[in-house]
Specification:
Largest sheet: 9 strands, mixed
Distance between the termini: 43 Å
Shape: globular
Oligomer: single chain
Number of helices: 13
Length: 356
């Protein structure tokens, strides 16, 4: 195969993998697609080249090792975009293939695209924590809320439809009680695309103020978790639990539900990705606790101004410019006709030490 042919086929493999978005968690996108491809090819697989976005697995999980299936099929060459970050694999799949006499190649030009496609899985395998995306809609001057009347939307219907695609890619959505009381949201995935499991809705509510008649509670089908504190009413907790809500007590600083414990718990539930859609104070808490891994900010061509309009992140903030939370790998997304979104990754302390 020529380099151009390899690129064309690996692009096709990544295109097919992208179709699995929202349908494979907690696995990577189409991780076991090689087995499906081999079954469909039958005898034609013998002597063929296999193109795949991730290294074939070599361990026994819910399914037999894919590397064994590749060897048994008589495939002579494997081209992959990435080595699997799963420590149970981490090169063992490639080694098993090479030991069987199969030529193995990493297609470097497609690696960045494959990492992006599988970023939640890669992040989870390296940290055992979900990839947390802080999403917000704001004016050009960084405001998310007016002081008096907040009827209507900041961004357009087109931008809001794009948000649904972000939700579709995530396993859980996190908000605060302030947003739940002000907007009475459903916090559902309304993309219309199939999912492997329901979007888990999580509300931080230190005093259990969430009304039992709210749309979140009345629509609950074991997909709503409320994080509270030991100061909350036991009676209200029982009422919510009777309505099917899971209530967890995570005491945090200054009497608030702890966001870091919440993210850790979601990791234990094998939630690979979380989107935060909240108000000013919780946005800051997520950033300040270094729980946010990336941001996705939607900007509308509007200005609110004033000192009473709420900024994207409230709280005490950083008191010195040199302590500002930094971003890297910034990417702009155009949303026609006059809006745009900023996607970027939060620089963590570990990243700073690595750079120095």
């Amino acid at each position: 195969m020529s380099a151009a042919q390899d690129s064309a086929w690996i692009d096709k493999a990544l295109e097919l993998a992208a179709r699995g978005r929202g349908q494979t968690s907690p696995n990577p996108n189409l991780k076991h697609a090689e087995v499906l491809a081999i079954e469909e090819a039958g005898e034609r697989a013998r002597g063929a080249t296999l193109y795949i976005n991730l290294e074939p697995c070599s361990h026994q999980g819910r399914t037999p090792p894919c590397a064994d299936a590749v060897i048994a099929a008589g495939i002579t060459r494997v081209v992959a975009s990435l080595q699997d970050p799963n420590p149970l694999v981490a090169g063992d799949g490639f080694r098993k293939l090479r030991d069987a006499g199969i030529q193995v190649e990493i297609h470097e030009p497609s690696s960045a695209r494959a990492r992006k496609l599988n970023e939640a899985f890669i992040h989870f395998m390296r940290t055992r924590r979900p990839l947390v995306t802080l999403k917000t809609a704001l004016t050009l001057d960084g405001k998310i809320s007016a002081p008096d009347d907040n009827r209507g939307w900041i961004t357009s219907e087109t931008a809001r439809a794009h948000v649904q695609l972000l939700r579709h890619d995530c396993d859980a959505i996190l908000t605060g009680i302030g947003t739940a009381l002000a907007d009475d949201p459903l916090l559902t995935d309304r993309s219309g695309l199939p999912r492997s499991r329901p979007l888990l809705r999580v509300v931080l509510d230190s005093r259990l103020r969430l009304p039992t008649g709210s749309r979140l509670v009345t629509s609950c089908q074991k997909d709503l978790v409320v994080i509270t504190t030991s100061a909350a009413s036991p009676e209200k907790q029982r009422t919510l639990e009777e309505a099917g809500v899971k209530v967890l007590v995570f005491d945090g600083p200054i009497g608030r539900a702890d966001v870091r414990q919440t993210i850790d718990w979601l990791g234990h539930q094998k939630m690979l990705s979380v989107i935060v859609e909240a108000g000013s104070l919780l946005n800051w808490s997520v950033l300040d606790a270094e729980c946010a891994d990336k941001i996705f900010f939607y900007y509308a061509p509007k200005i609110l101004g004033g000192t009473q309009s709420l900024p994207m992140a409230g709280g005490i903030g950083r008191r010195r410019r040199v302590d500002a939370i930094r971003m890297r790998n910034l990417e702009l997304h155009s949303i026609a006709p006059d809006e745009f979104a900023v996607e970027a990754y939060v620089v963590k302390e570990l990243d700073v030490h690595r750079d120095s």
